[in-house]
Amino acid sequence: MAQKKKTTSSAPRKKISFSLSKQQKILLGSFLFLLGLALLISFVSYFFTWQIDQSEIGLLSERELQTKNWLNKFGANVAHFFIYDGFGISALIFAFLVTLTGVYYFFDYAKKPLTKFWFWGLLLMLWIAIFFGFFGEGTTVFSGIIGYEINDLMQDYIGLVGALLVMVFVLIVYLVVRLKLTPEMAINAFKSSKKHIASEFISDKKEENAAQSLVSEEKVDEDKVEDEEKFIPQLNVERKTTSPVPPPEKIILKSDIEGDVEMEVEQAAEEEEIENISERLVKDFGEFDPKLELSNYKFPSIELLRDHTSGGGITIDQEELEENKNRIVETLNNYKIGIANIKATVGPTVTLYEIVPDAGIRISKIKNLEDDIALSLSALGIRIIAPIPGRGTIGIEVPNKNPKVVSMRSVIASAKFQNAEMELPIAFGKTISNETFVVDLAKMPHMLMAGATGQGKSVGLNAVLTSLLYKKHPAEVKFILVDPKKVELTLFNKIERHYLAKLPDTEEAIITDTTKVIHTLNSLCIEMDTRYDLLKDAMVRNIKEYNIKFKNRKLNPNEGHRYLPYIVLVIDEFADLIMTAGKEVETPIARLAQLARAIGIHLIVATQRPSVNVITGIIKANFPARIAFRVTSKIDSRTILDNSGADQLIGRGDMLYTQGNELTRIQCAFVDTPEVADITEFIGSQKAYPDAYLLPEYVGEEGGTNLDINIEERDAMFREAAEVLVIAQQGSASLLQRKLKLGYNRAGRIIDQLEAAGIVGPFEGSKARQVLIPTIEALNQFLDNEINNN
Ligand SMILES: Nc1ncnc2c1ncn2[C@@H]1O[C@H](COP(=O)(O)OP(=O)(O)OP(=O)(O)O)[C@@H](O)[C@H]1O
């Protein structure tokens, strides 16, 4: 395909451009060079000889006639034509341009700059001619007849002052457009020239002194070194130093080594440092503060959360501990397993008994006795960890008779969470050793959550969202909530304009129907691509670096840069979606999961049914962090954790977490619906953004294009847009948005029109559309044909 494009693109160019062979170019180059040189010589000599030769002008046919011009009759006549009859002294520019063109052809340099040279050269030539016409008081040899006449004409129409003003204006155009001069540069140049003169004066003095001392020293040593001098070469060393002495300064040093070696040290002028724009902006306005718009935003207070641990913290029931210990020892003894040591750690829901078996006991033997031990302890949810990684002991987790609820309040208030320096800290609950378990969602970077119904998934999701609400400002994180069950996440509607993201033109931010989920996922893919483009432009690797750069005002918002909040997509019932939409949901989710980590889009996907047709290989591979609440079978446990264990949990927020190999048992923090209602109410009652965070618009296939879009109804930027896409060979609306500074809707509309015109191909999911026209030439032809046919 690419090759095909190449051939078609080069074909039409061949037709129009005439190309010279290398030899022809050398010949043409040398001819022009010599011609230019001849012109220069004749022009220069004309100024010395024109008065003498004046009477011989035009008498070319008379062979004997001699003129004084260095190129004789030819020179005198050509110079007369260009200088006297033409442009006066500025005809030298013409000769110079011819010479330069010769050089370009001779060495076969790229010809593009030549056009510029000629354009500006001729303009300058004309200007100088008029200038001399104005000031030269009729001396036609300086202004030429053209300069004289134009000046005369101007004065007749706009008067002396008018002519002067026109000349000044043209001069300004030349200086600003051609020489890119700005008023600041002129002022700086003036200042530095003043400095230069002052330092020149000082250095002259220094040099004088140095020279004087050198002379006197030399005189003393003169006799001594006279003979040796002949054999020692004079040393002239130029050294660039970076000492902050402004203009070049020469110091002549006398060397100590034998002989008289002179060294001249040249100190380079310190380059003037211009303050970086971003530094200046930061100095003037401070760092960009994304929270500024809601600067009075108040985080919810801890008082909104309740303490569910009615009986206070964890109580240790000595009797229960002793009883369990005896039973474990007994059971193991029945199987002839001796125990050297046993230790208990009491957690909120389970107690961990760590056993060190007698020497020579095989670990697998204990592992196989899991069910027997469970039976003898007459308890559900025994989990044997053999061995506990990194400890060299065997762990038996036994549920407590009176499990304690871990309140969200206690984990949010914990120092570990409060002091967490994480991008997206989540306090899940407490581990078996009663430590608050805090992880960074940004590092996970996506999370899969499974558990049979009623085991605590929804509470777990609320815990995640609550953690983020307690730590992150509305400017820093946005949620996309997908809730096919329609009841679980409705409370978060209240914080729509603070924390939620949604598709443009949709009423509700919380997504409950499948089509909208598909649109949102594809829209997120577009957002992801746009963010990657922004990161690429900013030359950073991830969202954190990008936002730091943006805060330091190193990225220009006029070029599409903006502060990027993290986006957390929460899907409450994934099985439901996969069943109804299948690949349409799976593909964008897999794409996001694969790519979105660096640009701050994180997915949390929860499901009741962790079967392989729901959690497919591709999804699983991209969700390294997994959470399992209690599931009904070992197979489900393996599907979600790649390990058994989740089937032996006791429910009510008892969960296993893994982000690699190790499983951590956690009691999920409990946050009740009224608490969530209070928090969202508190946030929702504060000043909000005008709207939810708007995701890029996604035009689904069915919402597709009207292929009969009228040519007259096309957008004014249609042609430009077509050119942008054809050059980039990429049919993306976000490209148009960036290059032509369009809004998303308009860019989308233009894309539709381009599709209708047959310039770009149909929509291809989250991939950019194909561009069907390979080159600009082909595009022009295509559009011209279209106009002719109408
Ligand atoms: N961390 C927890 N601590 C204490 N109790 C909990 C915890 N999590 C859940 N529960 C109890 O379990 C009940 C069900 O929890 P939840 O609604 O989260 O289940 P679920 O897995 O989302 O169920 P479903 O899939 O049917 O929505 C809660 O009402 C609560 O009483």
UniProtKB/TrEMBL annotation:
SMART domains the UniProt entry points to: Ftsk_gamma
Entries under InterPro entries matching the protein: FtsK/SpoIIIE/SftA (IPR050206), FtsK_4TM (IPR025199), FtsK_alpha (IPR041027), FtsK_dom (IPR002543), Ftsk_gamma (IPR018541), P-loop_NTPase (IPR027417), WH-like_DNA-bd_sf (IPR036388), WH_DNA-bd_sf (IPR036390)
Gene3D superfamilies per the UniProt record, alphabetical: 3.30.980.40, P-loop containing nucleotide triphosphate hydrolases, Winged helix-like DNA-binding domain superfamily/Winged helix DNA-binding domain
Subcellular location, principal: membrane
Annotated binding of ATP, by residue: 451-458
Domain FtsK: from-to ranges: 434-638
Membrane is among the record's keywords: yes
Keyword Cytoplasm: no
Signal peptide: none
TM regions (residue ranges): 26-48, 81-105, 117-137, 157-177
Cellular compartment(s): Cell membrane
Pfam families (alphabetical): FtsK_4TM, FtsK_alpha, FtsK_gamma, FtsK_SpoIIIE
UniProt keyword annotations, A-Z: ATP-binding, Cell cycle, Cell division, Cell membrane, Chromosome partition, DNA-binding, Membrane, Nucleotide-binding, Transmembrane, Transmembrane helix
Membrane topology: Multi-pass membrane protein
Record family assignment: Belongs to the FtsK/SpoIIIE/SftA family.
Name used for this protein in its record: DNA translocase FtsK 4TM domain-containing protein
Organism, as annotated: Aequorivita aurantiaca
Classification of source organism: Bacteria, Pseudomonadati, Bacteroidota, Flavobacteriia, Flavobacteriales
